[in-house]
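TODO from last week: model AAA+ ATPase domain-containing protein.
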Amino acid sequence: MKQGVFELTLAGVCGVAAIIGLATSQTRQPYDLTQIQFCPRSINGVQSQIKLDKRFCNQPRFVLTEEWQRYGLYGSIIPYKGDAIQWVRDLPTDNPNQLLGYGVAVIGLWGIVGCLLVRCSRLKRTDYELGELEKTGDYAIWQHNKHKREVKQHSTQLYTERLKDGLSGLDTEERKALGLTDEENERAKARIQLEDFMKARAVNHSVMDKTIAENLRDKAKAEQERGKIEGKTKGAIANGDNHPLTDQRLQCDLIEALKNHEDGWLWKVIDNQKPIWVLGEAGSGKSTLAASIVMLREYLFGMPLYQLLDAHAGENLRNAWKYLSPQLIAKTESEIGQAFDDARERWLDRINNQPDKQPQQLLVDEFTNYSESDITKEPAKKFVKASLSDPRKASERLVCIAHFFTNTAVGGSDGTAKGRARGTIQIDRKTADGKTPLKVAIVNGLNNSDGDAEIDKKVTIPSWLTPENIHKHFNGQPIDFDN
């Protein structure tokens, strides 16, 4: 109780201090003023002078101090007044206690908040402790009386059974006296009751056996599902001792799966130096495929993701880019425009000045919107034109995402349609409902064995090709490519 009174008293003191501080910090008027008096001199005697003084001289008048000082006591404006206009005092706006008053007010307000927070925290803690104490006491009482309740319940049950047996015996004796039954009939009834009891017991045992069998079946299914999630097939489990899951083996398994999928078009895409454009409408899985390509190149070839350009990076880093680790991120339009210019300069510098450069990657998302902004329009156009030749020489792999492959959708790069069609790889993903991606896709720009770019090649995306599965593959849960 004393602590609560102290908290409320301190909060009241802080409130009074805040009010005093606010009152002290107020100024008298908004501008510096000078008080003057107008006392004209009469030539008609003393009485006339007294009347003039009552009418003019005793009335306070104020002018701006700046005006009073500028015109030299008004002598240059109304010289014929002589000394009729006289200075009385200055009224400055400066309040020497203003900053101090504001400081006291702020400290007082924070003091009130602190006192209330301390009080609320203390009351919550007290209520919690009282509640826990009450629950502990109730549980102790319940435990103390539990044995008594069980004994009483058992005693009541025994008494009921003895009473029922006694009443049944009396009823049987009365029926025998009346000739309604005999010993043979009673023995037959007892035998039938015993058989019914044994059958009911057998039914209960069969129900328990069924429950045990269902539990064992569910346990086996759970172990089988867990084995699938961990990527352990029966063959992998049987040969696990002979082939340890090293990073090199995991890489080889993944490369083999990429090469064996539909004539190896996936491996050709991953190993290709052409810029990759992932196309499709919303919900077709563009970001999933782009992130998978970036992760495969990072795990298999040691190519880190140098920069990510995405206006929606804040949301995508929690979903589509969850397993990516870019060194730089550009989110705003100004950052993305500058990143386009920096990429072109970086490519030239890596080509001319870095002979032993390490390969790296660049990921650009939402390319469709960059040709509409005044900030990113010109940088995006120059970036797309330079991307047709510079990234390969600069050892930088480029992955871009857009809804379409028109000039407008890829940064407004007019005059590059043929170069983009032949000098890039376009993977067009599909969706039927705008929510779920389809496995089928269309690939353009991937060269065949004769060196000609294939057009509208129909392919499928394997179900295991997701960023999450690739991450798990190298972190203790290998992909089951056979399933």
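Done. The two ends are 69 Å apart (CA to CA).
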